[in-house]
Task: inverse folding
């Protein structure tokens, strides 16, 4: 548990899963707003893409703590801190995040999202038109 790659992986997972959780909550609402859904999918992918080259908040804080304390994390000596382990972790992080983005793209294909957006526009127009005729 005091291995660098293990600690860094846990911190990275915390950052990634926090972003995915926010997306998930959009889909758990009783009424889904298509515009909000599309925006959240795009935002999630962009945030994840930034994590490939830049640490998220928790990973950044973890790495800073390890560096500032001379290789400790909350008072525990971290093992395996060397350039090879850091390269291995960055490679693992990149592959993992790219895979998550790929799975989001598979699940929410752009042409399907465009179709949902068109459907939403038609439904909103129909709903507004129906409301005007009721008056």
Result:
């Amino acid at each position: 548990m005091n291995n660098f790659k293990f600690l860094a992986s846990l911190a990275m997972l915390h950052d990634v899963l926090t972003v995915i959780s926010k997306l998930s909550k959009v889909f758990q609402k009783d009424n889904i707003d298509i515009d909000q859904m599309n925006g959240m999918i795009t935002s999630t992918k962009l945030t994840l893409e930034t994590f490939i080259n830049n640490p998220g908040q928790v990973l950044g804080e973890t790495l800073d703590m390890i560096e500032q304390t001379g290789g400790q994390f909350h008072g525990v000596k971290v093992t395996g801190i060397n350039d090879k382990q850091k390269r291995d972790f960055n490679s693992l992080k990149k592959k993992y995040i790219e895979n998550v983005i790929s799975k989001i793209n598979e699940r929410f294909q752009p042409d399907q999202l465009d179709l949902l957006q068109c459907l939403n526009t038609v439904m909103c127009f129909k709903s507004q038109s129906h409301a005007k005729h009721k008056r």
Summary: The beta strands are 72-73, 76-77. Residues 4-108 form one domain. The chain has one domain: 4-108. The mean pLDDT is 87.
